[in-house]
Each structure stands twice: as C-alpha cells, then as structure tokens.
Amino acid sequence: MQTKFIALFTLFFSSAAFSETAIVCQDCSTESAAESFAKSQANSLQCSEKPGADRVCQSESKVVTFVDYGSGQAYQYKVFHERSYPWEVHVERIPLSATREESFSLLMEFVKDSNSAIEEASTDFNQLLNKAHMSTVSANTSSGSGGICPENTALKVLTDPNTLDAIKTEASIAIGKQLLSTNNQLNFNPVKINNSYTLSFGGLSSSTAVDGDITTPVYIVTFDESERSSWRKDFLAYYVDILAFDAELLPVMRFTLLEESRVAGYQLKNLRGGDGVGSLSIDNACVKQAFEDAVNNQVLTPSTSDAAGSVGDGVPALSGSGWSFPTTSGCGTYTFEQGGLSSYTFRVCN
Length: 350
Prior knowledge:
With 350 residues, this protein is of the alpha+beta class. The protein has three domains: 19-96, no CATH class; 109-193 and 209-266, no CATH class; 272-349, no CATH class. Helices cover 29% and strands 29% of the residues. The strands form five sheets. It has a seven-stranded mixed beta sheet with strand order 6-5-4-1-10-9-8, with helices on both faces. Strands 7-11-12-13 form a four-stranded mixed beta sheet. A four-stranded mixed beta sheet has the order 16-19-18-17, with helices on one face. Helix 3 crosses helix 6. The N and C termini lie far apart (75 Å). The relative contact order is 0.11.
C-alpha cells in the first residue's frame, strides 16, 4: 500500500512539475511592462478594522506566470505586498528554464497562426459550393413554393445535415492547409479548446489560461440568399476547437454554432425562442416552406402546437407525411426538434 501511495504521489508531483499555465499579456514586451503587469495580478490587500497606526494589512504572496502575445516571451514573478504602510506591491522575477521559455514561444506562434487560419478560412457560401464542388442544398428541396423561394440559404443549410457536414469538412481542410503553410510545430500536439491553448515541447506541457487576453476567433459562412430580404446578409458563425491532428496533419475539429448567427433575417437565438422576449411571429411564406420541407424530409420533428381553434386543427401531422402548417384562422406556437433537441420555437398566425 505504501509503495502504491509513493508511486501515485510521484506521478502527481511529476505532472505538476512539468505543466505550466500562463496568462496572456497583450503588452509585456519589455521588462518594465512585465513588472507592471505582474503587480496588477497581486492578491487583494486584507486590512483589519482598527483605525490609524494600529491598522494591519496583509495579503498572500502568489506566483504569476504570463507570456507576451506579440513576442512569445514568458515571465514568472513572485508578487507580494509590503507588511507595513503604505503596503506597496513588490515583485521578484523567478527564472524559467530555456526549454520552458521555448515552449511558450512556440505556443504563442500556434495561438496566432491558428486564430488567423480560422478567421481567414471564413467564406461566402457560393464560393464554398464552387471550391468544394458541392451541389446546391438538396435535402430540403422546396415542393410547394412554385420555385419562388431561394435554395442556398442559411436556414436551408441548418436543416440539411449533409450540407452542414460538408461545410465543416471544408472548413477543417482550409484551416489545416493554412496552418501547415505557416506553422511548423504541429508535431508538438498543439490543442485549442475554448479559449485555452496547450502545447508539449521538450517533455514540458505549456498552456494559456482560459481567461487570458485573447480574442476568440470565429469561423463565418456568409449567404447571399435569404428567405427574407434585409440590409444585412445571413451568416452562420462558429467557435472552433482544435482537438488533435491526424496523420496528414489536418486538424480534428469541433464546431459550436453561435446563437448570434443570422438565419432567415433573424438572430438564431430569437428563431429558437430563447431570448426571453417571447416567440417570433413568422408570416413569411418561404420561411414556413423551409420548415415544412425539413419536416417532410424527416430532418425536423414538430413536437408541439397550440394553434387557436379546435384541438384537432392544432395538432401537426407526423413528419414525412405531407405535413404543413394549418390554414385555419388563429395563432399557433410551434416547436421543432432536430436531432432529438428542441431547436426552433415560433408563432404562426393566419
């Protein structure tokens, strides 16, 4: 038992010793700027309630590690307050090993290169169609609009699993190629999850803090067509995580759709009924047609409807059986599930 405890303690200590997380500083390229930043990270001063000269103030000292965004220079300081009035903040620099400094320098190159690659991969949907040799959105071909409704829209894509998958595949390829052209450190297993970045080098693991001063990049696909005309184009916006790299050094990625995306002329969170201001009222024939097509292609499932009038008029038919919104007078609130999740909620009035 004692042997097992020693082994576990050694493993824990070794992991802690070889891992380091740094805050990102946007302007710490000089020693004086670094010292000022370190002082700003001091713990809060805690003071007794005694007035005047009898007042006692103190804070716990801390070690802060950070890296300059531009240069990749890493720093580590012990930060503490004086124990007597005026309790000024002092810092003492702690040397980092050359390998650790190199690790953070490589990590910051990956941060900048991956962020640029994600943003530069953003594209127009029509360009994506040509580049990927994709056909137009096909899963939800309109059957009842007489051909007057646009097909290559954000709403049509969101309700077409095949096209969504193709978009993410093309994004992974575009981002991967851009990274390969600018970054030679992909064999160090760099990872980006949320707003934290990690890289292994020389037996050391170096990471950036999640709350660091890094602007999160967003991958955006813009659409020229929309069910509703507007001065602003529709777009799908994604946060992108880089989880690993495959044998061809292309990234394994996770895409998270932002509710701030714009779909059918609406903010996506409003179309989902989740902005706390009540459900949108949809009266656009092409928007309704897009949902009907998605239901009849068994991509969406209408789970609830409380249309005014008789109960029978308000109950939607099963998906895939010629479903359409009721035409009787009154208003109904509809919720549609996609992939087993409640995805859209809005009102339709006749």
